[in-house]
Automatic annotation (TrEMBL):
InterPro entries the record matches: Methyltransf_12, SAM-dependent_MTases_sf
CDD domains in the cross-refs: AdoMet_MTases
Protein name listed in UniProt: Class I SAM-dependent methyltransferase
A Pfam family matched in the record: Methyltransf_12
Lyase in keyword set: no
UniProt keyword annotations, A-Z: Methyltransferase, Transferase
Residue ranges of domain Methyltransferase type in the record: 49-132
Organism: Tahibacter harae
GO molecular function, one term: methyltransferase activity
Biological processes, Gene Ontology terms: methylation
The UniProt record lists the keyword Phosphoprotein: no
């Protein structure tokens, strides 16, 4: 079983030999996700839910783009919550907890980056139900498949095809709008045929 402790985050997020994403790449992903969400909402985002947030790496680039938007991160790492919870508004919860967990509001942008390809199918499906139920605008769901060239943490990686993810996301009520962006039932009626991925 993987332990998401300080050593894990030091290796995959800070060590130049192993780090899989730079701050510049993360800033561009944040700009993409915010831009897509605001396009489909027709207004600036007001709140963000980051599922599987780890240490809350998305917190700073999102705050730089939209300082007025509230941010809530959820993660199963006790270390990350103890270390960064108060400063970055992180709470302890697993992806599967979203199946039952309701946070009292819908979110303009829900991020789940580099998480779902480590989850077993039942937990993934449970969590997706919660994401769809609490989604107001866009879900940025960064997932890697058997069709991708992969580098980084392969321990526990679930080897699934793009087709498998598309089917599971569609069954949950999500519609692709490209570039890892998905809308739920509240936005889907307004998506044109060529926008859908």
């Amino acid at each position: 079983m993987k332990i998401y402790d300080k050593a894990y985050f030091d290796k995959w997020y800070r060590d130049g030999r192993h780090r899989v994403i730079s701050s510049g790449v993360l800033a561009r992903k944040a700009a993409l996700a915010v831009g897509l969400a605001e396009y489909y909402l027709g207004r600036p985002i007001r709140n963000v839910l980051d599922v599987g947030c780890g240490e809350g790496a998305w917190y700073k680039p999102l705050r730089a783009l939209r300082p007025q938007a509230s941010y809530l991160g959820l993660d199963s790492s006790e270390y990350a919550i103890a270390r960064w919870g108060r400063q970055r508004n992180l709470r302890l919860a697993s992806f599967g907890d979203l199946g039952q967990l309701r946070l009292g509001e819908r979110y303009d942008l829900i991020i789940c980056a580099d998480v779902m390809h480590y989850l077993r199918a039942p937990e993934l499906r449970r969590g997706l139900d919660g994401i769809v139920d609490q989604l107001e605008g866009l879900a940025y769901l960064e997932v890697y498949t058997t069709a991708d060239r992969l580098d980084g943490d392969m321990v526990g990686f679930q080897r699934r095809t793009p087709r498998w993810y598309r089917q599971v996301f569609a069954e949950a009520g999500l519609l692709s709008v490209g570039s890892q962006g998905w809308v739920g039932p509240r936005q889907a009626p307004w998506i044109t045929a060529m926008e859908a991925g």
